[in-house]
């Protein structure tokens, strides 16, 4: 079954990494309902040694404490389970809420940096706090006790680099049109015969062009052979 965050993806957008808060964050958020549940168990044990009306009152209070703590624990777990922290090929997305959903995202091209903070326990259990910064160096969002926080930051910066490369890459040039068929070469006209005087004058002119550098010696020799062939 697709999660709510998957329905927020645009066309062509793909999820590269999906995480949520570390299980230790769930345990910390559930500390008060856990204490209430334990207190209910203690009252239930103590009520066994109480008689009369007071025992009934303690019994009702115990049941209420246990039921309320279990509901509180269920809500805490669902809130933790419903959170999604996503890195896609276009943005970073955070979704939270059980029934009423809230989503916040940051486009990769607008992200300037990400500040990761890990204490000793966070390094041992692989979680941390991540601050997403824009180009103006203002915090966009703070991801508290994020599971696999170093990997999340690394993947986010990798996708940002990939996206910037795609933007900077030049667009492909349009396909070249097929060149029209080359018509067959026309038959070379027959060479006109020349008199000896005409050939001599033409050779003198060619020699002058060669001496002035207007034509190369090879061109002079080719033209000379052509003229001599017309005698």
Task: Describe this entry's structure for a reader.
This protein is of the alpha+beta class and 231 residues long. It is 46% helix and 20% strand. The protein has 7 helices and 7 strands; from the N terminus they run E-H-H-H-E-E-E-E-H-E-E-H-H-H. The chain has helices at 23-29, 31-46, 53-82, 120-125, 149-168, 196-211, 217-228; strands at 15-19, 84-88, 91-96, 102-107, 111-117, 127-134, 139-147. The strands form 2 sheets. Strands 1-2-3-4 form a 4-stranded antiparallel beta sheet. Strands 5-6-7 form a 3-stranded antiparallel beta sheet. It is rod-shaped and about 150 Å long. The chain starts with 14 loop residues before the first strand and ends with a helix. The model has no long low-confidence stretch (mean pLDDT 82).
Annotation keywords:
single chain, 20% strand, alpha+beta, three-stranded antiparallel beta sheet, rod-shaped, 231 residues, four-stranded antiparallel beta sheet, 46% helix
């Amino acid at each position: 079954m697709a999660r709510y965050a998957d329905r927020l993806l645009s066309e062509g957008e793909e999820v590269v990494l999906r995480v949520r808060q570390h299980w230790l964050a769930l345990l910390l958020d559930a500390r008060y309902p856990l204490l209430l549940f334990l207190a209910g168990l203690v009252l239930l044990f103590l009520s066994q040694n109480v008689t009369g009306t007071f025992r009934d009152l303690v019994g009702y209070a115990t049941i209420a404490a246990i039921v309320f703590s279990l509901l509180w624990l269920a809500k805490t777990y669902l809130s933790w389970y419903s959170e999604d922290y996503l890195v896609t090929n276009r943005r970073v997305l955070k979704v939270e809420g059980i029934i009423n959903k809230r989503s916040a995202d940051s486009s990769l091209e607008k992200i300037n940096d990400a500040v990761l903070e890990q204490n000793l326990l966070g390094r041992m259990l692989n979680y941390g706090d991540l601050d997403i910064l824009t180009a103006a160096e203002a915090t966009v969002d703070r991801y508290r006790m994020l599971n696999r926080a170093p990997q999340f930051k690394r993947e986010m910066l990798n996708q940002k680099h990939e996206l910037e490369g795609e933007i900077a890459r030049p667009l492909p040039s349009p396909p070249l049109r097929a060149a029209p068929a080359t018509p067959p070469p026309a038959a070379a006209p027959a060479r006109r015969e020349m008199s000896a005087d005409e050939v001599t004058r033409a050779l003198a002119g060619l020699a002058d062009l060669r001496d002035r550098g207007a034509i190369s010696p090879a061109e002079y020799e080719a033209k000379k052979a052509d003229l001599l062939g017309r005698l």
